[in-house]
Amino acid sequence: MIKKNTWFISFWIMLFIIVFMLMNFSRQKTREIELEYSRFKQYIKTGNVQNVLVGQNFIKGEFRKSSSNNIWQKFKTVPMNDPNLIKDMEENNIIKFSAITENGWLGPLFISWGPVILLVLLFSWMMRGMVSGGKRAMSFGKTKAKLTKKSSDKSKKITFKDVAGCEEAKEELQEVIEFLKEPIKFQKLGGKIPKGVLLFGSPGTGKTLLAKAVAGEADVPFFSSSGSEFVEMFVGVGASRIRDLFEQGRKSAPCLLFIDEIDAVGRHRFAGIGGGHDEREQTLNQLLVEMDGFNTREGVILIAATNRPDVLDPALLRPGRFDRQIIVQKPDLKGREEILDVHSKKIKLDSTVSLNIIARRTSGFVGADLANLVNEAALLAARNNQKTVTMRNMEEAIDRIIAGPQRKSHFMSNKEKKIVAYHEAGHALVAKLLPSIDPIHKVSIIPRGPALGYVLQIPEEDRYLTSRSEFLDKLTILFGGRVAEEIIFSEITTGARDDIAKATEIARKMVTEFGMSNKIGTITFQKPNEEIFLGRDISKDSRYSDKTLEIIDEEIKILINMSKSKASEVIKNNILVLNNIVISLLEKENLTGDDIDKIIEASKLE
Ligand code: ADP
Ligand code: ZN
C-alpha cells in the first residue's frame, strides 16, 4: 500500500520536473531581446518590426535585423512618452499593432504557467478518481474492513451448520448470538455480555469461520478485518483506522466486528525494536480506548482471533475488554470426520470412500487442511475425467498435502535413486522394528515437494502425550536413513540434512523443556515467549551460566549418539531385509506398510 503510493507520487514529481524543464527550454529559444527605445524606433523606420503589442508598461513585438534577413526575433522595450509612435508605425506599414490596457501580468502568467496548472488540475482529478474508484489509494485513515451485510439469501448465509466439531466453542458463543439477536431483551433479562471475545487456536482451525457463523446465526452485519491492516508505516494511521472501524460498527449496530491476527496490533507493548514508542503502540492504545469507550448496550461485539495468545499485551485481556476467551482446538478423530463430511457434501463421492478411514489417516490436520484435502481430491478426479471422487484420489490428496505434489519430471540418476532407496528403506526398516512407533503408511522414492523420497507414518489415534522412549525411537528412525547410507556405501550425502535438523530439535526439547535428561533434571530452559521479543533479548540468555549451557549441549549429544548407534545396530542385524526392501522399492517406487511386513516375513524364510 505504502509502496504503491510512493511510486505513484514519485511518478508525478518526475513528470512535473520534465514539463518544467521543457518549458524553460522553449522559453529560452524564444527569449525576448531587450531593445533600447531608440533602436526600436529605427527598426520601425526601416520596416523591420511586426506584431507590436503596446501596453502601459511595455512594448513587445518581433523584429528582424535587416530586410534581407528573414529571421524574426522577439523583443521587449519600455515605452516612452512618445506621441508619434502610432503615427510612425502607420507610416511605415507595420503589420498589426495593438494596445492592451494591462493589469497585464495575469495573461502572460497564465500562458507561461498554464501547462503546470493543467497538470495540477489533472493530478487532483486523477486522485479523486482513484478514491471514488474504490481503490481508496489516499484514504489511509479509513478501515479496510470488509462488510458482509445481513444476507437476505438464506442459502449463502454461513451458520453453525457449516462449522463442524468445535462443540465447546459453539456453546460458548451461543450467548453472544442471543445477545446480538435481541440486545435489549437480553439485557432486561439480566444477561451480562462480554465486550470482546478472543478465539485462540492454530491457523486453519476455523476461527474466522466461527465468527462468521456467529454473525450468520444472529443475522447481523459482519465487519471482517485483519490486525496487519492496522499496522502501517505512518504513525497515527493504524489508530485512525481502529477509530473508523468502531465508528462503522456503531452505525450498523447490532453487528459483529472481527479482527483476525490481533497479535499484529495487540503485541506486548515495549517489546520489539524501537523501544515501544512506535506506531503499533498507538494503535493498541486506540484499540483499548475504543473497547473501554463503547457500551455493549450499543449492540456491537468484537471478536478477535490469534494463534499467539502468549504475545498479547496483558491490558487486552483485562475485564471489560476481551473478557471471554475461547480455545478453538485442532479437531479430534470425530471432529475430522465431521469436517470431511461438511466439505464433501459439495462433491460426488464414490462408494469406495470411507470418511472414517480418511479421518484416521489425517491425525494433526486442521479444518483448513481437510477442506483443502477434499478440494484436491476433487481436482484430481476432474483431471482424470472421473465422474466421482474415489478413495485413491483421497489418498493421493493426503500425500500431496503432507509432502507436496509428486515431481514426475524430476530426473534422478540410477546411482542417486539407489542411494535414496537405501536411505528411505533405512528409515522404514528401523520404524518397523521399533515397538512404540506409529505405523508406516507408505514408503516412496518418487520425489515429492522438496524431498527426494519419504516415509509416511501416521498415528492410529490422536496423541497428546509422548513418552521418553517414544522420543528416543523417533530419533532412531530419523537416523535410520543416514546410517543405512553409511553402512552400504561407506559414504554419506546431504540427503540426511532434514533428518539431522529434526533430530537435533527433538533432542534439544527433551533436554531443555521436557525434563528428560538426568544431568539437567526437571528444569525448563525454554525462554519465556521465545523469539518474540527481538528487542528485548537478542543475544543469548544470561540467566544460565556457560557451564550449564555446556552441559545442555553434552546431554543433547549423548541422546543423539545413543539413538544413532541404536539405528546402526538395528540395520546391521537386518541387512538382508534392508536389501530386499530396496529391491522392491526400486521396482515399484511406492510400498505400503503391509508390503514391508510381507518383505520382512519373506526374508525370514530365506
Ligand atoms: P482460522 O481463522 O482459524 O485460521 P479459517 O476459519 O480461516 O481458520 O478456516 C479456513 C477454512 O478451513 C474455512 O474456510 C473452512 O473451509 C475450513 N474449516 C476450518 N475449520 C472448519 C470446521 N470446524 N468446519 C468446517 N470447515 C472448517
Ligand atoms: Zn531421511
What's the layout of helices and strands?
Layout: H1 2-29, E1 33-34, H2 37-45, E2 49-54, E3 59-63, E4 73-77, H3 85-91, E5 95-99, H4 106-132, E6 146-148, H5 167-181, H6 183-188, E7 196-200, H7 207-218, E8 222-226, H8 237-251, E9 255-260, H9 263-266, H10 279-293, E10 300-306, E11 324-327, H11 333-344, H12 355-361, H13 367-383, H14 391-403, H15 414-433, E12 440-444, E13 454-457, H16 468-489, H17 497-512, H18 546-572, H19 575-588, E14 590-592, H20 593-605
Parallel strand pairs: 1-4, 2-5, 7-10, 7-11, 8-9, 9-10
Antiparallel strand pairs: 2-3, 3-4, 6-8, 12-13, 12-14
Helix pairs in contact: 1-4, 5-7, 8-10, 11-12, 11-13, 13-14, 15-16, 15-19, 16-17, 16-18, 17-18, 19-20
Bound molecules: adenosine-5'-diphosphate and zinc ion (ZN).
Zinc ion is lined by residues 423, 427, 481, 496, 499.
Structure keywords:
single chain, 606 residues, alpha/beta, Signal recognition particle alu RNA binding heterodimer, srp9/1, Rossmann fold, Helicase, Ruva Protein, domain 3, 4 domains, six-stranded mixed sheet, five-stranded mixed sheet, 20 helices, 14 strands, 11% strand, elongated, binds adenosine-5'-diphosphate, binds zinc ion
**Major sheet, described briefly?**
6 strands, mixed
End-to-end gap: 69 Å
What is the total number of structural domains? 4
- CATH fold name of the largest domain: Methane Monooxygenase Hydroxylase, Chain G, domain 1
Classify the secondary structure makeup into a structural class. alpha/beta
Q: State the total count of DSSP E strands.
A: 14
Given the C-alpha coordinates, what overall shape results? elongated
Bound molecules: adenosine-5'-diphosphate, zinc ion
The percentage helix is: 40-55%
